[in-house]
Amino acid sequence: SAYIPVSGSNSDGADAQTGKGARSTAWSREVSAWALEQLLAQGGIAAGDADDAEAPLVATLILNEPSLQYHAARALGIMRSKAAIPELIRLLATAADDTATLDSGTDQDPAFVKQRREKDELIAQVASALSRCEALSAKDSFATLLNHRSQDVRKSALYGLLSAKHPRKSELLIGMLTDDAAVVREEAARLLGFTGDRQAVQPLVALLT
Predict the structure, then answer these.
(1) Confidence at 101, pLDDT banded by 50, 70, 90
(2) Which of 96, 172, 87 is nearest to 130 (CA)?
(3) What is the pLDDT of residues 17-73, one digit of tens each?
(4) What are phi and psi of 3, to 5 degrees?
(5) Distances (CA, A) of 178 to 86, 145, 163
(6) What is residue 175's three-state secondary structure?
(7) For the CA atoms of the chain, what is the radius of gyration?
(8) Is the pTM of this model over 0.85?
(9) Are 145 and 153 in contact (CB under 8 A)?
């Protein structure tokens, strides 16, 4: 994961272990979401327990705590939660709007660079979760993310085109064969192999020469 909770004192001076202060509460939520994510990834949660965790995880998506949202989104993606899809789509749109504002900043400001990187990581994770949830209603969002500045976001969006059954998935994947990032080009080529679409043959042959 991009965000790994680290214990210690919080920015408001409250000790994370005492449970005092608003930041301590936020830190506790973050660690809980991270732990659930790890248990789900390792197969350590039974189906019934996962069901109990689903609604609380979905509820955390509305909180303006990017690291918490990141872990909750990943956990819900592992669960392939259909109930989470509307909130994940809303979060994706909100995060994308935030990054548009961040684009006006300067790369010379370390705090700005860190904030933008974390927001990009969140968008990539939410897109990945929606892909795993096979969110058909997110197909237009995936297409839009193909133009995102982050190669990780663009790569996550590629999977979404297939899982959401985008009607232009082959055309869009072919277009990504010329992406600036090699990892995106390679993934687009690989995913074209799963489309069963004849129009992918010539573009793929062209890459052999």
Answers:
(1) low
(2) 87
(3) 444 555 667 778 888 988 988 988 888 777 778 889 999 999 999 998 999 999 999
(4) -105, 120
(5) 32, 16, 22
(6) helix
(7) 19
(8) no
(9) yes
Start-to-end CA distance of the chain, whole Å, equals 37
What tokens does 52 get? 């109990």
Q: Which residues have CB under 8 Å from 131's CB, separation 6+?
A: 77, 142, 156, 159, 160, 162, 163, 164
The amino acid at 209: T
Q: What length does the chain have?
A: 209
Closest by Cα among 54, 50, 7 to 31: 7
Q: Are 40 and 72 in contact (CB under 8 A)?
A: no
The mean predicted confidence, pLDDT, of the chain is 86
The two tokens of residue 29 are: 């939520």
| Cβ neighbour number for residue 152 with a 10 Å cutoff | 20
Helical segments of 42-109, H only:
47-60, 66-79, 85-102
Question: Helix-strand-coil percent breakdown of the chain, rounded to 5?
Answer: 70, 0, 30
